[in-house]
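Person: Please comment on this record:
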Amino acid sequence: MSKSLPLAVLVGCLVGGLVYRYLLSDWFLTVAITALYSGIGYFLLAYDISLLGEHEQFTSHDKYDRLGQTIGLFGVSIGPLALIEYIDLQLPEAAGVFVWTTGLIVYLVILSAAQSRQAKST
């Protein structure tokens, strides 16, 4: 078994434990956050990806592609705020939603970088 998996689960449990202790008393969302950050930790460790490093970016010279990307990113950025407003969350719950959303975005970026590295190595 790779060392990456146990360390990743440890990272996920640490984040999940902190969220449960200080932000959310809901175990279901905390489990989702724990699993999400475990996945992030795994791909960071297994593929030696730096969070602040250089990643391939979506680049296109087509104005419609750029507009589509802008609209999508706008939706991603305001979605959590709209959810918090819609269900009238208080500060700890809102922070929990923010942690989950940030983790979701980071997970997708890291997964994409890992797939790109894997494709280049084969």
Observations:
- The longest helix spans residues 91-121.
